[in-house]
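Fig. S4 source data, part A: sequence.
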Amino acid sequence: MKELPFREIHLDFHTSPDIGAVGSRFDPEEFAATLAAAHVNSISCFARCHHGMIYYDSKVNPERVHPGLVRKDLLREQIEACHRHGIRVPIYTTVQWDQLTAREHPEWLVRNEDGSVHGQKPYEPGFYGSLCVNTPYRDFLKAHVKEILQTLPTDGLFFDIVGTRDCSCEYCRKAMTEKGLEPHKREDRLAFATSLIGEFMRDMSAFVRLYNKDCGIFYNASTIGPVETPLADAFSHFELESLPSGVWGYQNFPLVMRYARNFGLDCLSHTGKFHTEWGDFHSFKNRAALEFECFHMLALNAKCLIGDQLEPSGRLSPAVYDLIGSVYSQVEAKEPWCSGTRALVDIGVFDPKEFGLAKGLSLDDSLIGVGRMLQESGQQFDVIDTRSDFSRYRVLVLPDSIPVNPELDAKLARYLAAGGSVIASCESGLDETGGAFGFKAAGVRLLPDQTRDLAGNLVRGRYYDRHDYADYLLPKGPIASGLPETEHVMYMKGAEVEAEAGSEVLADAVLPYYNRDYRHFCSHRQAPSSGIRGYAGIVKRGRVIYFAHPIFRQYDRNAPHWCKVLFRNALDMFLPDPVLRHSGPSGLIATVNEQEKEKRLVAHLLYYVPERRSKNIDIIEDVIPLFGVKLSINPQGRKIRSVSLVPQGAKLPFTSESGRIEFVIPEINGHQMVCMDLDK
């Protein structure tokens, strides 16, 4: 499949059958011209929505054509008009949410363990009862998809709501029993469900290819992670649904994208024009926020998609497309420096989701914490899993709770022997029982009596509201650079370890007078330092540094500056010449990409400041320029012949010394790209 366009719209059209005059104001030429004027070059349009309604003249399911649809072949008219303007049109259809099918065939619904419908209660508004693809519903889907492919011009297929469901429907119980599984066991159900959704995707993709060899194929589970990537062969590309104003937040996209971009597929990221999220009619995202979200996609090697929802009348909102056009015109100008890019990175960060430590759309707290620290420090990194090629990275980070089995320990040992470095924290490195270190190179062992709370729970890595089991770190020497050499509170207790022979203790963990409980406490929070050493807090052995405390989860919780400084100092020991350094504030996002074909490096600098101005949403409203930001780049052996601001074209003077180049960016007004041309 050729490279995806950069400027897509996902045009939701979930329209209730209780609404009439659907499409009454649709004018094909106006529709396409509005998109073209807004610099849109791809738009997904609807074949079938979550209400179960169809928006084309279906002969296979005529009873499902929306009863209020004035223009019975609306989808075809949308496609043909867009094609006349050179606009690509992937076709949307729903999979696991379909209100009409759920009502007509309740036996096809995913059932919870207790027999209730998954995702929907009887008196809740919504179409969220999930359909099971292990039922005859799959035959209905194939007939529907076949009609699309045989009767409509199909640039791509967007299959929505395709995720693993713990299902106890009659069909799944029977299939599990036939496979020797025990449906009453949750672990057996989840194993079956994971296998089922993969089999469904591959089966449907093979079916699509019988009728169209070239169209795009994507299955949307609202994220891309270790569950989805083993099924990459069923996809033509990846899409990352991540509306920052919805349940995802601003930390979701950059971490998911840093993982998804490593699998050789083109990536398209979603945001929305909505102030909140999908289905927010007549709302408008602040332009500065929409700029940041799209430019951030470019900086991380993704194409841009903005979600909209077509009003029932079928007419696009001129005000919405004025907003979108104001951003997409800028994206279009930046595209020449964003096509065919590959990120230059130093660091690989393990995703705890591979080990079941985060569910659904959620990211593990420790991944968010390490992502923030690295982004705020200007470090270039990927998110990886145990299948990744470790040799691509100079440093690997195992954040807080990554278990190490013998296979991973051997792979890490080979990586270290080849000159790599590892930073691990808290329970990372423990074997799968949690009772000993499986990562032999960590240079530490667990003390025999790990602290437990009054309920008998291990307290290491756990958060207590009043920091009941906090202790203190006393860093010294290089690890303490930039910090006073005194105790620093660690709000969550670490794994209590001692250094093995040949390991160096960089910081001791100092105990409080006592742990806080109803029998003895001091003031409002944790007890103060007793000055008594308790265990090894930070340990270095060769090219491994181990933090006993969950510094990344702690940073996500309350962002102690000293945790970031300690981590940054550890990185400096292993990474003295990173890809990028800058003199800007910690809120400056900086990335470096290579365009191998064009023989150039491109740096992206973004400075937009999200503020929590509402209870649930981070708001970006103002753009505050930065002036005179110094950039230092390690081109990793490449020779730079010129530096310029793009797309402006202004040349910048630069110096080259000790393998690095340095230059000053006069102004960053939201987003600035810098092109570094290489010797040819």
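Fig. S4 source data, part B ends here. The longest strand covers residues 529-541.
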